[in-house]
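Reminder to self: keep the SMILES exactly as supplied, no canonicalising. Ligand is magnesium ion.
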Amino acid sequence: MIHSDTIVASATAPGRGAISIIRLSGPQSAEIATKLSGKSLKPRIATFGSITSESEIIDTGIWIYFVAPHSFTGEDTVEFQGHGGPVVIQTILRLMTALGARLAEPGEFSQRAFLNGKIDLTQAEAISDLINASSVSAVKAANNSLRGQFANQVNKIVTDLINLRTQIEAHIDFPDEDIEPRSIEAFSSTISQINSELNTLIVSANEGAKLNRSAEIVLIGEPNAGKSSLLNALAKEPLAIVTDIPGTTRDLIRHDLLIDGLEIRITDTAGIRSTDDVIENEGITRAINAIQTADLVLCLFDERHQTISEDTVLNLVGNTETAIGLLRTKIDIQVAPIRNQTHYPLLEISAKTGLGLPEFRNWLLEKLSLTTHLETPFLARQRHLEHLQKAKACIEATTNHHLTIETIDLIAEDLRLTQNALSEITGTFTSDDLLTSIFSTFCIGK
Ligand SMILES: Nc1nc2c(ncn2[C@@H]2O[C@H](COP(=O)(O)OP(=O)(O)O)[C@@H](O)[C@H]2O)c(=O)[nH]1
Ligand SMILES: [Mg+2]
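Structure tokens returned for the bound complex:
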């Protein structure tokens, strides 16, 4: 699909910076660049030049021209690397739009790359996910998706489905001839093979989806254990109210932290105890719900009032598969070394003096990097999981019918729906509405 209009946007983050890149894409790109620079640009050669308006120099920088189809979007593209001042950038954008370019919508460059067949939808999404990656594991997985690893696995199943459908649909054209038992057996075995490939892909996609969000840590413990104090110490600001009155925290208080490039969402909760206070009870219910979706639950305890045992942990956390860590708090005022009576990892901290916090941060990094599966083969989104589940439901529906000449068109239809669900992942079968909603979440200039 070749667009007739030319789009322009700053491809670098807004604000002041040493350099900014302004990108044009579309048929008028070279013409606009030539008019502004007064130079004839050679493809893929960096050309030093100025942008002049009414004989005044606006900026000086490097021009690079990529001729269609050998560009990111697949269209004629020009990049101008100039100085990163907001006024400079706005002035250049105005000059370019006055010469016929249109300001790009968010994600429009990637959308054009997709529409021009340069990348599939999972690769386009991987670009956005790479930019938003919150850990090194997520960067690696996004790059794998960008290289097409996810799409290749989806396409492999789609190819198998197409082959199967071709053979099955051949029978629909000849309803008077019975299907040979040998063929029925072969079809059934291919269906179960596709089903099992799909199940393997779903497992990987579920792992990949975990990387697409921050790691969630929930702080729990009895009232006064020191949860809110720890949140405040990590956030380096008094987010939660701290008092020595049990039941001070009632709502969930969330804060996003960045520890060595790893994005962590930490949630402070109401202390878990039995109480008649309606508001506090609601807070406790919320704390218990937060535990269910956490990657790591940290049980805090003040040893002067509470000893920690397997039962205490289970009482606090409930029976969960989630990773658990124990934090003995207020070590500035507790002297006796603790005897750990559980098999959970134990750390000791003082939110007040900061004692033990560096070790705690290092431990967190190690723990969360382990739980975010370094080997995840690709990054996945909720949208992908939904289509995979739909594909699974459709292929499983084929087994509702015993394969005969009478039921073959029902089975063919289920297989067609399976293929459609998978094709929505890569975008080979996608509605315009979906494309708009996907690309609108990208940044402008991408
Ligand atoms: N000495 C000392 N006191 C602490 C420490 N952390 C919390 N506290 C005190 O313990 C009480 C309860 O703390 P808070 O963070 O509100 O506990 P929460 O109920 O678990 O959120 C407050 O009086 C805090 O000042 C610490 O590391 N050292
Ligand atoms: Mg609190």
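Points to follow up:
The pocket of guanosine-5'-diphosphate (ligand 1) is lined by residues 221, 223-229, 242-244, 248-249, 271, 329-330, 332-333, 350-352 (CB under 6 Å).
The chain has 14 helices and twelve strands.
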